[in-house]
Amino acid sequence: MHLTTLLLMAALIWPVGPPRPEIVRGWEPPAGPYGPGHRGLDLAAPPGTTVNAAASGVVTFAGQVAGRGVLTITLPDTGSPPLRTTYEPVTPTVATGTTVTRGQPVATLATPPEETHCPESCLHWGLLRGDTYLNPLLLLRQGPSRLLPVTGVP
User: Fold this and answer.
1) What is the pLDDT of residue 18?
2) For residue 46, what are the domain limits?
3) CA–CA separation, 149 vs 30, rounded Å?
């Protein structure tokens, strides 16, 4: 993994909150590209909640997909192809091509569509590299714990 990717990951934040949002539905990777699963995280939040950029990047899509508002932010210096975060259902407050910074408001959570798997309103937060979906929790990891030598202890 690139050093810049590691440094970027240490600086990421949850897209809604504080406090840390409840994960209504977790990552369930599909067995194949078209198989059943859950390609992201659902974070509990009421409609109208401000959605913040989890990391700095460039808005590469802000519009409708299948009747839902979607926002995609591409994260620079994260390898090839670069990582992208997605947020839905939202009403984007930034346009395609806008450079955003970590923590910057980028959308508001829209009223959920009639067909939703969340018991209440939620933000679907996704992470992709190319066409491969990844677990967004990977972005929040602070790296492995390290044990240091102990000296002077009997």
Assistant:
1) 83
2) 3-29+38-140
3) 42
